[in-house]
Amino acid sequence: MDVTTFKNASYLDEATTLITVSMAEQLLQNNQDNPRPLKMHIASDYARQMKLGRWGRSPEPIVVTKSGRLANGQHRVYAILASGVEQHVHVVIIEDKDFDDVSSILDQGAPRTAADVLKVDPAIIRPINYLLRSAGIKKVKPEDLAVFVDSDMGKIIEEMIKIKAKGRLWRHSCFRAAMAVAILSGKIPKEQAFEIYTTVSQNVMTEWPHIFSELYVQMNDTMRRHETSGRSFTNDWYMRSLYAFENINKNTKTIRIYKSYQEEVKTTSLSTLYAINPQWGEK
Questions:
Q1: pLDDT digits (tens, 9 = 90+) for 189-244
Q2: What is the rounded distance in angstroms from the CA atom of residue 92 to the CA atom of residue 10?
């Protein structure tokens, strides 16, 4: 089967069609004048899902004109070509003269978030999402998150968000990620970590452990330049919070981050993720 098959189809004909790699290549060759640019980060993500065997048949059709122009579905078709994995898809055929009208009304719905799909509080999703993005997953999917949400990591974060924290720092996703990693990597006992969290989020500053007072001062210092990337373990909200938890039982007066510690943070974080799901990074 190739794209000439569509020429003889009836208008608005619907069918489940096997899109092979060869057919995907033909469709993309006909797609060069598509007014909507191909977004490579989306297409690459779809290809990754196909390679991992996660791609399910979508009820949203691929819409093709009789001459083989793609009015909808170019990212899925590109993903088939890039992944080398053929897919059964729902295809709808339209007349070539209707291409512009149909294209203009597609993809107007609001996408479902990972929290919607997994039916969990977004506050649980965000720290895990940060960790996976920092570990190298460009677009974190619900399937990537699910294992971690259902693990001890998800349970720790869920316990944290039940404690009504007063300060922005203690509610920050990177702080919550740091506390979860500190506990799971054995840097601090869970009971002690939660005792600290309850103290800093509920009590006045004079009652906080000294190193957490230092953390608060550093992160609220507007004269200090902070690394805030949501795709890096060197994010200061995360790295300095992890440092505070790791050094709570030491005679440490301040938080100083050296290159060697940045590497240690990366190693600790990745090891924690791998311990929960050894397949998290497969592409």
A1: 999 999 999 999 999 999 999 999 999 999 999 888 999 999 999 999 999 999 99
A2: 10
The whole-number pLDDT of residue 72 equals 86
pTM: 0.68
Find the mean pLDDT for residues 55-64. Answer: 82
